[in-house]
Specification:
alpha/beta; about 300 residues; elongated; 5-stranded parallel sheet; 7 helices
Amino acid sequence: MADADVIIVGAGTAGLTAAIYVQRAGKKALVFEEAVYGGQIVNTPDIENYPGIAHISGYEFATGLYNQATELGAEVRFEKVLSIENEGAEKRVKTTGGEYTARAVILATGAKNRALGLPREKELTGRGISYCATCDGAFFRGKEVAVNGGGNTALEDAAYLANGCSKVYVIHRRDQFRGDAKEADALRAKPNVEFILNSTVTALFGEKKLEGIEVTNKVTGEKRTLPVAALFVAIGQEPDNAPFANVAALDGKGYIEAGEDCRTETEGIYTAGDCRTKEVRQLTTAAADGAVAAMAACGRLN
């Protein structure tokens, strides 16, 4: 007998939404999460773009999803999923805690922050290198810091940091930001924010903690040293789907190939949220994917 009707890999917005819909369909959902429930949204101080909710913190949003899913009967286990085997009518899922079987699987693994790939980046992470301004920005109040990136996350991080840091450098490899023009214009008006465009971070300085960074202009080749106490990296995300390539085709960037129906190439295995191929990655699309994948899985089981 299977351990669950549907195993869900990942307890972010997509995964927990899927769990809610599975339970409401009268099926048993077993959710596996490697770290903490909620995914990266838990680090967002204020969500303003979810329909029907004008303002809510990421932590409150994630906790509401978690409580709703578990109160409906979904089980959440904090174990890392190592592999999935397709055994026809059943799927075998191996985790750090054991092996489990289900009649369907939903991959909702999300995406992780992309690193710069510079020497000593890993050693200095948590010692001046951060991927979450709202998590770590308070440690650098009154100090000079830098943000690397050109999307909305980078611009929002810079705006948040400018409220408490003496100086915020915004470093972007192009001459135009990908993020909202309104956000960029608001930053330009702040006296303690400086844009460094057409540039990349090329070196990290400091032994026990970050003490500065080297920035190189891609057009002129000019190098500049910034004496910052922190570097907040916001250059996008990347999926971690390699362990599931045997049951779900991946595109060139590692995202699971699936359309709006959330079906993978393997019968009984679905995907939802930021880990799949899609144009828009937002809370609303993650929740929508979770619902679609769950209903497809339960419809198949029926």
